[in-house]
Each structure stands twice: as C-alpha cells, then as structure tokens.
UniProtKB/TrEMBL annotation:
Name of the protein: Integrase catalytic domain-containing protein
Domain of life: Bacteria
Lineage summary: Bacteria, Pseudomonadati, Bacteroidota, Cytophagia, Cytophagales
A Gene Ontology BP annotation from the UniProt entry: DNA integration
Protein source organism: Hymenobacter nivis
One annotated GO molecular function: nucleic acid binding
Domain named Integrase catalytic: residues: 24-86
Amino acid sequence: MGSIVATSVYRQLLHDHQALRSQSRRGDCDDNAQAESLWSRLKTEVLELRERPVFADLADAQASVAIYFDYYNHERLHSSIAYQLPYHTHQQILQLNALNCPA
C-alpha cells in the first residue's frame, strides 16, 4: 500500500471514529517530546522484553499499556523532573496554579 493510500485510509478511519489527529506544529520538534519519550520508554522497558507475539490479543495489549502507564506516572522516577514522580509533580503544579489563580 502506497503512503498516499495509507494516509487516506488512516484519515478516513479517524474520521469514521470521530477521532482527531495529534501532530506537532510544523518546524517544532519539541511539541511531542514528552509523548515521544513515554512511547520510547514503553517500547524499551516493556515491549522489547516480551516474547513474540508481544500480546495475546487486543485486551492483553490494552491492559499491558494501562499497567505501564500507571507505573510510569506513579512509580518510575524521571530525571527530567529531578527524579520525582510525574503524578506528584503534576499535583504540585495544579496546587500552584490554584494559588495563583484569582477566584
């Protein structure tokens, strides 16, 4: 399947399911840096350690990704945020925003 045909099929599938494409802005490679990092970690910390086939079925894939996301946000320390947990960092930001936002 050519790339133009694949793109057309992909766009139609998104449209059929009322989904929106998420893309970075032209020329801004940092737009999706956090998301790209997350998927990279999932790939290296989970998928590459599994035997083939990686998942038994769609439900297994969904459960595995959900478990990893929970670990990633609540247990895995991140060097980019001074070895804190993303969940705790996010909660701190929310509290600061609430304090700085006039009611």
